[in-house]
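dumping this here so i dont lose it
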């Protein structure tokens, strides 16, 4: 349980979520950790899951690399015992390879396969994967069908509204996905051409919800409790998927779940709890990646954890210029101890 530093705040009226059924798997509280490259590795997923999330999703995995069983890819799909249910997200453009990659992940213990039709990055799009597939519904359908047929576990889909505002085909593609056997669809309320600019259009997601009978999850710009309310009310979605809103806050998804249960905004966890989480996360990354890579990857997380605290800029700069783990631990302790004494 979280150690709250302050009393909760009442926000008044709020929407309530019901459990979502994804094939045989019940997502009791459909507030989901989004797949994020370089972020939702096993150490971070484990922390979010430990704090109460019902479902976490891996980083996007290239299906070709999965089939080749690259060492880095194998590390990306490692899971901890407490992650059930955990989804592995795959990207690719070849139906047979996507099916084979899905089967390999099923054999390695994945509970759900999520297909990526939403990544806007040029390297992915130029390979006719990610959001590029929203421009080719025939190719998209072949990938969906091949992946569903390859495994016994549920397959879900994450996509955008469309390639651009002249081609907003998410409702039609969601219907195709449903007919192919996809069990849940998540929609990021932007087009590919928007990348991450502008504001996510949660209202458009309602059109996807109205087009299918399977669960629909709203995604994009959900960074606060107010965002959660507006996203659910505007989209009519069955749940929300939170990405950047969880940076430096692995407890945020559980806070959202508690908020949707009670209508009360939980307070920020105490500084002592935050410090304990940072230390646990750092040690987990060092164990998972090794000392050199673990420290390099940990720096961004340490920066996110400290955001908004006094003198955090100087602290982040110091951490980013230190290569010794013992010095980083000392910097963390030196940063938090004065704050704890004044709390």
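and the seq i came up w/
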């Amino acid at each position: 349980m979280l150690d709250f530093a302050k009393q909760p705040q009442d926000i008044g009226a709020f929407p309530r979520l019901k459990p979502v059924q994804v094939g045989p798997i019940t997502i009791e509280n459909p507030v989901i950790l989004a797949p994020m490259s370089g972020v939702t590795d096993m150490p971070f997923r484990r922390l979010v899951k430990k704090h109460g999330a019902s479902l976490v999703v891996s980083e996007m995995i290239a299906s070709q690399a999965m089939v080749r069983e690259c060492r880095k890819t194998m590390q990306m799909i490692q899971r901890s015992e407490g992650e059930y249910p955990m989804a592995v997200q795959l990207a690719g453009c070849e139906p047979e390879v996507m099916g084979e990659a899905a089967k390999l992940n099923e054999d390695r213990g994945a509970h759900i396969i999520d297909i990526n039709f939403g990544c806007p990055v040029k390297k992915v799009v130029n390979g006719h994967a990610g959001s590029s597939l929203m421009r080719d519904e025939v190719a998209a359908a072949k990938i969906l069908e091949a992946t569903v047929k390859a495994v016994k576990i549920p397959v879900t889909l994450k996509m955008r509204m469309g390639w651009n505002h002249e081609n907003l085909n998410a409702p039609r593609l969601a219907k195709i996905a449903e007919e192919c056997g996809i069990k849940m669809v998540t929609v990021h309320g932007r087009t590919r051409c928007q990348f991450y600019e502008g504001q996510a259009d949660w209202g458009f997601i309602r059109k996807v919800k109205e087009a299918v009978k399977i669960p629909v999850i709203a995604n994009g710009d959900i960074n606060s409790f107010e965002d959660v309310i507006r996203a659910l009310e505007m989209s009519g979605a069955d749940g929300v998927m939170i990405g950047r809103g969880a940076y430096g806050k692995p407890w945020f998804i559980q806070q959202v779940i508690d908020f949707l249960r009670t209508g009360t905004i939980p307070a920020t966890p105490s500084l002592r709890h935050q410090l304990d989480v940072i230390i646990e996360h750092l040690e987990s990354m060092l164990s998972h990646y090794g000392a050199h890579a673990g420290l390099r990857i940990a720096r961004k997380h340490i920066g996110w954890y400290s955001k908004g605290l006094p003198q955090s800029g100087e602290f982040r700069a110091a951490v980013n210029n230190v290569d010794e783990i013992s010095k980083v631990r000392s910097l963390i302790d030196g940063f938090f101890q004065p704050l704890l004494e004044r709390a």
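Residues 271-342 form a domain with the Non-ribosomal Peptide Synthetase Peptidyl Carrier Protein; Chain A fold (CATH 1.10.1200).
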